[in-house]
Amino acid sequence: MKAFSIERYGKHSGKITDVPAPAMGTNDVLVQIHAASVNVLDLKLRAGEFKPILPYRLPLILGNDLAGVVVSVGADVSLFKPGDEVYARPPQDRIGTFAGLIAVDQQALAHRPRNITMEQAASLPLVALTAWQVLVETAQLQPGQKVLIHAGSGGVGSVAIQLAKHLGAFVATTTSTANVEWVEALGADVVVDYTAQQFDAVLRDYDVVLNSLGADVLQQSVKTLKPGGQLISISGPPTPEFGETQGLPWALRQVLRLLSLRIRRAAQAAGVRYKFVFMRSSGAQLSEITTLVESGAIRPIIDKVYPFQSTADALAYVEQGRAKGKVVISLR
Fold first, then answer.
1. Where is each Enoyl reductase (ER) domain found (predicted)?
2. What residue spans define the domains of the chain?
3. pLDDT per residue over 295-308, tens digit each?
4. Going by DSSP bridges, is the β-strand pair 15-18/2-6 parallel, antiparallel, or unpaired?
């Protein structure tokens, strides 16, 4: 089958090659991929930024989202059958959706929403699960609470705004001038144009911050939280607790301790909690998201769709950091 894979780490590595069809286990579902989407995670994996904590074997097929049709199932699969239309974020140790086929553990899959296309479905799993695991699982966001979602026009931000509004929260977000009206239409109550204002100068007493940006924004975000608030980052730095859950060696956990020391100290001094969330696959949570999509509470946002032959161009576009919502690769 055809797949877009990297043979070495590097910002511009990767090409379409012929690779063997995936091997299947008894709990696996073989899916013919109709569409996949590009995430910033793909860029970081390609560049080798996660080598210490995610030791993949090269060559590596990139891709962390999929929508497609079940071709066959393993002997112990009970949740899906051939012909089912599904979507998923595969488990982290078995990614590879920029390809014709993928074998996915049945626990990571969900039936795709019936009211959207394959391309729209492929745009959702990683970003929607990230938003869910930050806002519902970690923050336990309640109606009436105030949440600041950075980069509201991005993949995670555009879904997180919609999810937070569904949960009954008051939502602030940051974006550029060109996207202010666009994120307001998604439901944001307050929009800070970062080209004209410093968000930490105008936002105060928030319960939760979802950070997907760099260290400077992370430090500034502490000022926007009220005592007891939660600063949750999906872009790092990882904490020692994350290292423990990943089963990382003691020495590497100490590195994470040093990397996160500054922000953990700042959070402690302000009386707030800092947490790092590294999104994981979950078919059960994705089924909850399916219900929200079918009810209209969440709608997928797609910026561009590229043909599979132009996967490298899709990655380059995402790397520019200007996409509104998600960039999708069509394999049909």
1. 10-329
2. 2-123+300-330, 126-276
3. 999 999 999 999 99
4. antiparallel
How far apart are alpha carbons 327 and 321 in whole angstroms? 11
| pTM as predicted | 0.95
Tokens standing for 206? 């928030």
Average pLDDT rounded to a whole number, residues 80-89: 98
Q: Is 97 helix (H, G, I), strand (E, B) or coil?
A: coil
CB-based contact 46:315 (threshold 8 Å): yes
Strand ranges in 92-205 using DSSP code E only, listed in sequence order:
101-105, 109-111, 146-149, 170-175, 190-193
- Position 151, amino acid: A
The reported pLDDT for the residue numbered 8 is 95
pLDDT for 237-282, tens place per residue? 999 999 888 888 898 899 999 999 999 999 999 999 999 999 999 9
Beta strand segments in the chain, E? 2-6, 15-18, 28-38, 60-61, 66-73, 85-88, 101-105, 109-111, 146-149, 170-175, 190-193, 206-211, 225-233, 273-276, 302-307, 326-330
Max CA-CA distance within the chain?
58
Amino acid symbol at 138 = T
Amino acid identity of 30? L
291: amino acid identity, one letter: T
Band the pLDDT of 115: cuts 50, 70, 90: very high
CATH superfamily of 2-123+300-330: Medium-chain alcohol dehydrogenases, catalytic domain (3.90.180.10)
pLDDT score for 248 = 87
DSSP secondary-structure letter at 99? B
Pairing mode, strands 15-18 and 302-307: unpaired
Question: Residue 53: is its pLDDT beyond 80?
Answer: no
Q: What angle do CA 139, 185, 123 make, to 5 degrees?
A: 65
